[in-house]
């Protein structure tokens, strides 16, 4: 493993007890990886199996060009039009829940142009070293499965493509290359062999990447095992010893683990764990769905279906199709109508790969639902827990946990080791959520 920094060790490094990372998703695993690389004793506690949360069936994109926060100008109108429509890319199930309404209010406030711009800038800064970090992991022997075929943005109309490309050009601001113009007309669908002639405009952002997320998680798990990190699966963290001050022990379904520090990276369930420390983390699950299918021809690139906000990723010879943002409560209930809606939307861009929804059962594999942990401003929280000097939280990565996993783990490790918050983490402070 590579060293993160040569900063003088502080805190946990001087202590024998491990830093306990709660949650074996991509965020917890990456954090454990960088901590262990610095010689910090680490243990991971995972309530199910490693990667069993949102990190498993996602689309696997590792990208610069889709790293904008979800609350954006116009998104509220879009959400309002989708109210109660389960086939909409953004589905909001109205419910009389005070916390949800407060979340929506903050989401709306975060969608102003300047907050969106600031949020985008913050994520872009954190994201800057991402591909290099993936490369370093690969050099250290981790089979990240990352390849970088680029991302084709496909549209049914030239107008939609032009509009999207204009916005993307502004956001790229020299950080990544975008083409001058989309390819328009009958040749647009030639941008990727899987696209159908219904695609009337498309453009490629080169260099964007994709991993098989389950394989990436497994590879991290294996590397951590080799580095001597103890991983407790099927053990649930239920609380923390002491009600204030440093956390001396983590309470689990199988007893206590004495610790020198703790990192809460429990995805959606970080809410409960912060609650156990007396803090409210306003997370909502942005539920998304995916499934895998064999297409002929299969896509060569990551595909983004612009009008329908559905994506397709080349993965291990097959194609993973994913989409939807469903705000229907913090649960993992799979609504088959959403799978059908995604399949139907993809059919418009990929051509008739199925005849009718009843065929899907026999054509698709691994239908999956995952809860993206979402904070109302669309940014993660990566910070020390207020009032608990050796406790940290890394959650709320929304649509970007795979992309931002290595950068999060590395920056958080710097914070744990030095006791000083790295500049790149300033926008992801906890207190922005309480002010
Ligand atoms: C359909 C879909 C497509 C997506 N596509 C992409 C993409 O292309 N690129 C991208 O970057 N991101 C993507 N994402 C987002 C990405 O999946 C998430 O941001 C990421 O997986 C979050 O990782 P995490 O480690 O925070 O959470 P999780 O993966 O949910 O991990 C948290 C872990 O903590 C464990 N846990 C919870 N509570 C406890 C407890 N009390 N004790 C012990 N363990 C506990 C859970 O069991 C879980 O394994 C997508 C998400 C979805 C749903």
Keywords summarizing the entry:
435 residues, FAD/NAD(P)-binding domain, binds flavin-adenine dinucleotide, 12 helices, disordered N terminus
| Unreliable residue stretches | 1-14
Bound molecules: flavin-adenine dinucleotide
Provide the residue-averaged pLDDT: 93
CATH class of the domain at 1-73 and 112-144 and 208-283 and 375-435: Alpha Beta
User: Any idea of the CATH topology of the domain at 1-73 and 112-144 and 208-283 and 375-435?
Assistant: FAD/NAD(P)-binding domain
| Radius of gyration from CA coordinates | 21 Å
CATH superfamily of the domain at 1-73 and 112-144 and 208-283 and 375-435: FAD/NAD(P)-binding domain
Tell me the major beta sheet. 9 strands, mixed
Coarse morphology: globular
Which structural class fits the helix and strand makeup?
Answer: alpha/beta
Content of β-strand: 15-25%
> What would CATH call the architecture of the domain at 1-73 and 112-144 and 208-283 and 375-435?
3-Layer(bba) Sandwich
Q: Could you tell me how far the N terminus lies from the C terminus, measured between alpha carbons in angstroms?
A: 39 Å
SS elements, strand count: 20
Residues in helix, %:
25-40%
In DSSP terms (H or I, runs of 4 or more residues), the helix count works out at: 12
Give a structural overview.
It is built from 12 helices and 20 strands. With 435 residues, it is of the alpha/beta class. It has a domain at 1-73 and 112-144 and 208-283 and 375-435: 3-Layer(bba) Sandwich (FAD/NAD(P)-binding domain). Strands 4, 5, 6, 7, 14, 15, 16, 17 and 18 form a 9-stranded mixed beta sheet that branches. Strands 9-2-1-13-20-19 form a 6-stranded mixed beta sheet, sandwiched between helices. Strands 10-11-12 form a 3-stranded antiparallel beta sheet, with no helix packed on it. Strand 16 and strand 17 form a beta hairpin. It is globular. The relative contact order is 0.21. Bound molecules: flavin-adenine dinucleotide.
